[in-house]
Amino acid sequence: MSPWRRVRAAIRGAGRRSAGQAGFTIPEMLIGALLATAAATLIATAIYQLSVASRDGRNRLMALGDVQNAALWIGSDTSEAQSFAAGSGATYGTLTTSDATIQYRYSYSSSDKSLVREVLVSGNPTNTQQIARNIAAQGDVTFSLSGTLLTVTITSTSATLSESATLNASMRVR
Questions:
Q1: How far apart are CA 142 and CA 38, in angstroms?
Q2: Distances in Å between the alpha carbon of 40 and those of 10, 26, 50, 54, 154?
Q3: Which of 4, 13, 30, 115 has its CA 20 to 30 A from that of 101?
Q4: What's the whole-model pTM score?
Q5: Closest CA to 74 of 172, 10, 169
Q6: Beta-strand (E) ranges in 28-111?
Q7: Contact 150/166 with Cβ under 8 angstroms?
Q8: Could you give the residue ranges of the DSSP H alpha helices within 81-146?
Q9: Alpha-carbon distance 72 to 67, whole Å?
Q10: What is the pLDDT along the chain (174 residues), one digit of tens a residue?
Q11: Which of 159, 152, 164 is CA-nearest to residue 66?
């Protein structure tokens, strides 16, 4: 038998087994490896997508939480306020209540990158707290007054995700 005939015969019989032979043929092993690789690729892709979605969701929730917390404090303070005095520099402004000795001052902390609320009693700070932590720049918060309507715009950025909100709150003027 010529060498070419032997090669052709081997190729034709590559997937066949004689009776009593155990194990897998090379084509069966290649197909199994291909299927295992495809399954591993699908699983790895799913795990990666889950981790990205989880991270992005966490960042979005942080930014939303900051905006909501700031809106609650500013809304509460504005509803008690009689007047608003715009600030300068890092200070956005000060809300004064009907009791002129109590004021709420809002400012930007560049060291913490946060919106800070201070309660002033007779001009002295008695309570200071961060009400929004992820304020990337001082310009990400703006206060403006039109009559008794105080408009505050806040943008909070956590990692690469930003959330913005505009709060319109009316002062209680007597």
A1: 53
A2: 33, 21, 15, 21, 44
A3: 115
A4: 0.69
A5: 169
A6: 81-86, 91-97, 102-109
A7: no
A8: none
A9: 9
A10: 676 676 566 566 655 556 666 778 888 899 999 999 999 999 988 888 888 778 788 888 888 888 899 999 999 999 999 999 999 999 999 999 989 899 999 999 999 999 999 999 999 999 999 999 889 999 999 999 999 999 999 999 887 888 889 999 998 766
A11: 164
Q: Which is it for the CA torsion 126, 129, 135, 141, positive or negative? A: negative
Q: What share of the chain is helix, strand, coil (3-state, %, to 5)?
A: 40, 35, 25
Q: What angle do CA 74, 61, 75 make, to 5 degrees?
A: 10
Q: Which two tokens mark 72?
A: 């609650």
Residue 47: count other Cβ atoms within 10 Å of its Cβ: 10
Q: Which two tokens stand for residue 141?
A: 């918060």
